[in-house]
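Supplementary notes for students who missed Thursday's class. We covered one full example, reproduced here. Read the sequence, then the structure, then the short commentary at the end.
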Amino acid sequence: MSELVTGEAVALELRPARLPSRALAVLLDLIVAFTVYIAVSIGLAAATASLDDAAQIALAIAAFLLVLVGAPIAVETLSHGRSLGKMACGLRVVRDDGGPIRFRHALVRGALGVVEILATFGVVACIASLVSARGRRLGDVFAGTLVVRERVPVGQTRFVPPPPPWLAGRFAGLDLSAVPDGLWLAVRQYLTRMQQLDPQVSWTMAAQLAGDLASRTGTPAPPDIPPAAYLAAVVQERQAREARRAFADHAPPSSGAPAGYAPPAPGTPPAPGMPPVSGMPPGPVPAPVPQPPAAPVAPPAAATERPATGFVPPA
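Structure (token representation):
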């Protein structure tokens, strides 16, 4: 692995491509390029048979430069460092800082590739790649580029260690809105690698990060908590808030039953495939036993008395 530092001071771990994979990619590119060059040359020879020798030589040189030099430069520029051979081998050309290449990088690599690869049959490129610690040829050195492997085996995922249990929920009132993403990234990188650092260096870095984090939140870090534990607790609080926001729309109702659920009416048989209700034997549900009608209740005396209206009903 090769560690590159970007312009934002972020360390990237990349795996430089070695000579065998690069040679295979160049061989595939040359096979495609020479196949196209031969086809173009045959077409030009048939189309310019009536021209003189000087014109035919000029067209042959132009075809050579366009197909074997210009085409690879255009392909690497448009694909951001991935030619056909590199795509087949899982390689990519990047800048020294890990960013995508541009036209000037591809132009320098293509121009020196004529000497390194075509003129010397790849001998100079092989020697330069063997001497370089990161497998770079002269075109990469002058262009400031590096060929890296895109398809790498998946390694062990580093996780952020949890804080001590007695710190759970202690920083629920912190205002984390002013903390930038770069500081969160630095804190996470420190927490995942603090076991690999010297104890004194680890403590110094934790104290510095804790001070930066406390200045962003507006609340000083508690002096009785180690800086690393403080960082882990604040990161856990941020993750808990993000989880609550992410699943806020999927929270179950307060009653515990799904929305729109209505209990079945008494005597309704269970749905097919559903287990019987606890306490009842399986099989058809018995019909309800009819109950005798209840005796009518006499109305109270006050309700039987009719108001004195002076009207006498007919006999």
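Commentary. The two ends are 115 Å apart (CA to CA). Confidence is low (pLDDT under 50) at residues 1-12, 271-282. If anything here is unclear, bring it to office hours.
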